[in-house]
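Journal club side-thread
Mid-discussion, someone asked how the predicted structure for our own chain would compare to the paper's figures. Pasting it here so we can look after the session.
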Amino acid sequence: MQPIVEPVQRSADRTDAAAPARSSGAAAGVAMMVGSALSNQVGAAVGALAFPVIGALGVVAVRQWVAGAVLVAATRPRPWRLTAAQWRPVLLLAVVFATMNLSLYSAVDRVGLGLAVTLEFLGPLAVALAASRRRVDLLCALVAAAGVVVLSRPQPTTDPVGIACGLLAAACWAAYILVNRRIGTRVPGGTGPATAAGLSALVFVPFGVHVLVTTPPSPATVLCAVTAGVLASAVPLAVDLRALRRVPAGAYGVFMSINPVLAAVVGLVVLGETLPWDAWCGIAAIVGANVVSQVLARRGGSRGRAGRVGGEQDRAVRAAPRAAGRR
């Protein structure tokens, strides 16, 4: 009996020793996710400080240049090796990149950071809900829709163009997830997203140069735009990839929900933007719908791994936040 008991005891000791390591790794992952989300929203707010001088187009151009430079330098893609079948989704992703960021920053300029980010957040939420056939997800979709109605209903201060820009950003984020998923099956490594980011940066060269030449910015304005690129693109890129190694994708999807809340808080602190109580209710409805959907999807995925085959829908739900976090 002794030779049997000792290995079991040693295995238990190793398990007990590994538990704190897993716990600390998960805690580090959570801290990374919160830090990444905060960096993203602070970067967008700092970029908004440059709007009065170079506008949303100028800020987006600088941000795309920074994002493209960081991704290309980090990944070192070899686009000349891509086939025609690989180039099609890469080019589509480049268009999505450009449109997504321009529409988001245009929405931030017109309706404020908190509302713009909340509307954009509907993109990954829609992808996650569409991948499931559970009744509770239909309820989540209805709750999120109610939140949108509260945020976008006509009022004397409503900016329909800003609302439309936010919804366009949401559609682009959803397209980004789906196209990036296709690229993941066709293009190895990070060549696809890096090439798309580089192309998107090149698209903005003539527009950005025109803005910078016609309305010469001060050094402070340029610094704000560059800071937006670093905090809203470079930092999340580096941090999110490490966070996803420490926490499940489902947990990452839940923590993504803090982005609209952080955007509203950062908008208040940095930009002096205030939201009425009903807007906070709309944000809470959209965030709550995502949290419920992601938590239930994660539980359903765990049950599927334990006792059933055919969890493609749950995998699609979990894949949405993972892809979304790599913008």
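Post-session note: The chain is about 85% helix and 0% strand.
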